[in-house]
Design goal:
The chain is 58% helix and 0% strand. It has 389 residues and is mainly alpha-helical.
């Protein structure tokens, strides 16, 4: 076999290993510098973060702005943000009766904060309701209708937590990590419930909306599987802050009062249809004009959940690598991926009527996500087409 001077022969296996190792090396090198070039990090992450233990978790934390561009600041920054989260838990979980709840949690009841759990764990006893209650009068009475009553807040919190619990127990039912019967799985559900509950408490104008569990699940999963035991211990707090950053760009899609606003879900779906019309007018005409398919029937879930329910979990992580890394922005990237999903099912959709189109797009057929992402990267960005946000 001919070779260039100064090079060595490699078999196919060696070349494959080197090809897989190079992205890991380049990402590690970027993360270990004194200052991270986020544009370089995005360029590398756009093509997928290798499944090296702990690597994707760190990359996502930087891309979401949770970690700064200076790694030397990370320890201090993480300590501060994790402490802030635990303070929120201590201050915002209201129980006017004052007892602690059991470690398993009372169904629909507020869970103890992480610090409270640890304190009782160190004592070697489970968290159990105390045997007495303080005297209750005035605003402390359970029947008090005052909006400022702690009991009124407590009952409202219970309603919110019940809704969160119903969703969390249904998160990725095919994965033992989320829905198993082990103590570890129950801990995962408990920590996800509390993180979502804290978001609801800190965002009273929106509170918790069904589907938010699907957005925090990939974040929590990554952080809870970090090879660093110290990082794993704070997966709940880290997932909470990263979820806050992620949903800040998509939160208007969850607010029904903003459905018709320029930043609402209907406007975003219209942008999706405009992009499809530009890229494949024949397909757009067949679906929207001829068959009169309302895109909200399938695109609402795609967009609000960032495709978290449309693909296998590993594929979702790969898709999010690209969404978080896209230089045109997360929403722009998401709409291009959604457009590609429609175009790549073109043959089936053009042959189908209303029922076939709905069945295809509401239960999207299996697809190699690398083909999907390559196709999406070839489409023009919304900004290039003059679509403003």
């Amino acid at each position: 076999m001919l070779r260039e001077p100064g090079t060595s022969l490699q078999n196919d296996g060696e070349r494959h290993l080197n090809a897989g190792a190079q992205p890991c090396f380049m990402l590690r090198q970027e993360l270990q510098g004194s200052y991270i070039n986020v544009n370089n990090l995005k360029r590398l992450g756009f093509h997928g973060v290798p499944s090296e233990p702990g690597l994707r978790a760190v990359v996502w934390k930087v891309l979401l702005g949770y970690l700064s561009r200076s790694p030397d600041e990370w320890d201090q920054l993480l300590a501060r943000r994790r402490t802030e989260y635990h303070i929120f838990c201590d201050e915002l979980i209201v129980d006017p009766k004052q007892p602690m709840y059991s470690r398993d949690g009372v169904p629909g009841g507020p869970l103890p904060s992480t610090q409270q759990q640890q304190a009782h764990s160190d004592q070697g006893s489970p968290l159990q309701p105390e045997s007495h209650c303080e005297d209750v009068t005035g605003q402390d009475h359970p029947l008090c209708l005052d909006a400022a009553s702690r009991w009124n807040t407590y009952f409202q919190d219970n309603e919110t937590l019940e809704q969160i619990t119903r969703d969390v127990v249904r998160t990725h039912p095919d994965m033992q990590f989320f829905t198993g019967e082990s103590e570890a799985s129950e801990l995962h559900r408990q920590e996800m419930r509390r993180a979502l509950f804290m978001y609801a408490k800190l965002n009273p104008g929106l509170r918790y909306i069904q589907g938010m569990n699907e957005l925090i699940a990939p974040l929590y999963y990554l952080f809870k599987n970090d090879p660093d035991p110290h990082a794993r211990a704070y997966a709940e707090a880290d997932a909470f802050w990263c979820f806050m950053e992620l949903i800040s760009e998509f939160r208007d899609h969850f607010c029904q009062q903003l459905d018709n606003a320029p930043t609402g879900i209907r406007a975003t779906i219209r942008r999706l249809m405009s992009l499809l019309q530009h890229c494949d007018r024949e397909l757009w005409y067949h679906m929207e004009v001829k068959c009169k398919v309302d895109p909200q029937f399938y695109a609402f879930r795609w967009i609000t959940l960032c495709l978290a329910q449309e693909f296998a979990f590993p594929d979702t992580l790969r898709i999010w690598d690209t969404i978080l890394s896209d230089p045109h922005g997360r929403m722009d990237c998401l709409l291009r991926i959604c457009t590609s999903m429609i175009i790549l099912a073109r043959e089936r959709l053009l042959k189908g009527d209303f029922a076939v189109i709905m069945k295809t797009l509401q239960r999207y057929p299996p697809l190699d996500v690398s083909i999907l992402l390559d196709h999406a990267s070839s489409l023009p960005s919304c900004s290039e087409l003059g679509m403003s946000w």
